[in-house]
Amino acid sequence: MHNYRPVQVLEALGVCYEDEQLYRALLARPEATTTDLVNDTGWPTARVARHLRSLLSLGLASRTAGRPARYTPAVPEAAVELLALRKQAAIVQARLSASVLTKEFRAAHESGPFTVIRGEQAIAQRFYQAQQSAQTEVLVLDKPPYAVLPVEPRRAYGVSYRTIYDMAALGNPAELAAARSAGASCRMLSDVPLKLVVADRRTGLLQTGQEVIELGPSSLLDALVRLFELLWQQATSLTPESSGDGPLSAEDHQLLALAAAGLTDQAIARRLGVAQRTVERRMQRILKSLDATTRFQAGLRAGQRGLLI
Fold first, then answer.
1. Cα–Cα distance for residue pair 160/8, rounded to 1 Å
2. Helix, strand or coil, per DSSP, at residue 236
3. What is the second-level CATH architecture of the domain 250-304?
4. So what's the pLDDT on residue 37?
5. The CATH number of domain 79-237, selected from 3.40.50.720, 3.30.390.50, 1.10.3810.10, 3.30.870.10
6. Helix 250-260 and helix 276-289: axis angle, to 10°?
7. How far apart are CA 217 and CA 178, in angstroms?
8. N or C of the chain: less Cβ packing under 10 Å?
């Protein structure tokens, strides 16, 4: 027997694999009881009950009155729209958290020990030194304007880089191509809230205007790392995985990724270096290939078929 694992399509919206599998079981058997779902999934009753509670909290299912209790799945498109709105709310919350962190930082700036670095040459040297000292990973929140240009001197030595680019940092086709060449370690967000480099989660360089604040191990640095991880979950991959025999070309994947990040046809055209009419024509072809009527539906169906990461 093959150990077949269905493609997960709701993970990007915060739904774990087991929750999604139970949701699919409900779609196949509306108004199922807990016993029905135990029989359909082969899971223990406690496991089914735990994930039913999760589906209820996510709005993916509702419970009918009476005994035994029966569970009804939410309509997929409506449920996904709700989850997408919650994801957008999480992004807003992350940006609000950034402002709170800034206030905490300024309070620490007045009373606590840390290093303030000023001057273009000194800033460039410290950015380089911090990355050179990294042994395992470097996390980067990247947005213009730049006091110094971002570099990745340790990538060639096996140090893992993860970078979230602000859309404004990828303003032309050459910049976008350079970012995409780094592979899945780079993602894009419509509005990165601050500029940050963290080396091995022990040294943080936070740029504020023309000066950089260096942070050592602290609760503030831990909070900045948590902010990065939240933004990483919300950001859009720049390198969707292409399936050679699928209906989408590599260029189609790139266009869908940019559209999913919220760019307009005009903005996509500028980044790809093509005419807006070309983008519109390609998008219409993608919609037709995926039998979709909207961009959102196209992205959902591409995910369901395993055509996007």
1. 26
2. strand
3. Orthogonal Bundle (1.10)
4. 94
5. 3.30.870.10
6. 100
7. 32
8. N
Spatial distance between the Cα atoms of 46 and 30, rounded to a whole number of angstroms: 20
Query: Rounded to whole angstroms, how far apart are CA atoms 200 and 37?
Result: 44
* Identity of the residue numbered 65: A
Q: How confident is the model at residue 147 (pLDDT cuts 50, 70, 90)?
A: low
Rounded CA gap, 35 and 166, in Å? Answer: 48
Both structure tokens of 66:
């009476």
The whole-number pLDDT of residue 235 equals 79
- What's the token pair of residue 164? 């979230």
Q: Which two tokens stand for residue 274?
A: 């093509």
Under a CB-based contact definition with an 8 Å cutoff, are residues 58 and 15 in contact? yes
Burial letters 249-287, b for 16+ CB under 10 A, else e: eeebbbbbbbbbbebebebbbbbbebeeeebeebbeebb
Domain positions in the chain are 11-74, 79-237, 250-304
Q: Which residues contact 210 (CB under 8 A, 6 or more apart)?
A: 118, 147
Residue 272 has which token pair? 């790809």
The tens digit of pLDDT for each residue in 235-270 reads 777 665 444 445 677 777 778 777 766 678 888 888
* Average pLDDT of span 97-112: 64
Beta-bridge mates of residue 166: 189
